[in-house]
Amino acid sequence: MKIVNVFCLLPLLALSGCVLSEDLSPPADGKTVKVAVVKPADVDILPMDVIYRSEKCRDKIFTSTGAITSRAGYHLRTVPFNLEKGNDIVSNNISLDGGGQCEWKLSNIRFQFKFSNMAKFGADIKKNIPNDIVFVFDQNSPPRGDGHYEDISGDIVIKKDYYPLVRNDRMIDHAKILRLINKDMLTYRVGNSVSLLFEPNVHSDKVVNVLGPEKFGEDSITTYPDGTQTTNAKGPDPINFEKLKSMK
Question: What mean pLDDT is predicted for residues 220-227?
């Protein structure tokens, strides 16, 4: 009887041995990438969403037809930025190799940034919507966007212009909404980089105001810092960033 019991337990032991811990365990001497931001005085830099993927620990998912398939496992970490001494740069180092039994690998990094004081742009503003930037390190889809990216490598410095936009929504939200806008949605595929420096140039004094319609079919009015306006019954006109940049 004892022999039978031992053999009955073997399948259970084999199954339990296949269960892997999904914890991250980056090697102490592993490679890292430094992500740094030159922080504007009136902008908050929010923590990074760092996603690791694993081919070894795959997730089971259902397709639209009800079939079961799998995809690379997913592990999310939230990593804060730290203020560097003696300057206005915030940064942190991110491990490329997440380690652990699942052999996690860095997939992408995304962080957001927004105005620190929305009341500066109007006491009646109700929402403060951030902008963001995404860095992709593998072939998996980024957390947002249409899958298109700009390829970068080496030690990178990214400089972009940003402007405040205040939209007075009079149909849906019935509120004024503040956005930090720029010309492009920033998504980069990174290769062989050990340092990524982002330097947003925020023109807080160049406010774009959009007055939404009260009824469908009415004009939406966009007013630029110099007082010039554009109107469009189909919604706000695309922002003329070249015009904003040329304004003194």
Answer: 93
